Amino acid sequence: MLRLILKPIIQSPFKGTMITQLQRYKSTTLQPKMIRLQQKFQEKNNLPIHLKGGAKDKLLYLTTMGLTGCGLVYTLVFLAGYIIFD
């Protein structure tokens, strides 16, 4: 039964076109900037990966954690309002 449903999808005339288009643009060399970034992020310096980018990454991380904390507090206050005023 499943084969009858999937048969039109499997035998689609567009099968493989995206893969062939992606293979056409395949590059075998890396740009120097990408090599520098790989070396920077793969070095052993006991920093978590989300902080290896420097000050921008630290600011982004702290902002994300702060907004997540605010959302959690807001959700708890909202739910507590239903419990208290119910």
What does it look like?
The structure is a single chain. This protein has 86 residues and is an all-alpha fold. It has a domain at 50-86. 67% of the residues lie in helices and 0% in strands. It contains four helices and no strands. The longest helix has 30 residues, at 55-84. The model has no long low-confidence stretch (mean pLDDT 80).
Keywords for this entry:
single chain; 86 residues; mainly alpha; 4 helices; 67% helix; 0% strand
- Structural class category: mainly alpha
In whole angstroms, the N-to-C terminal distance is 51 Å
Could you tell me the radius of gyration in angstroms? 25 Å
Q: Low-confidence spans: pLDDT under 50, at least 5 residues?
A: none
Largest sheet: none
**What is the number of helices?**
4
Helix content: 55-70%
Percent strand equals under 5%
Q: What sort of overall outline do the alpha carbons produce when their principal axes are compared?
A: elongated
The number of strands is 0
What's the SSE pattern?
HHHH
- How much is the average pLDDT? 80
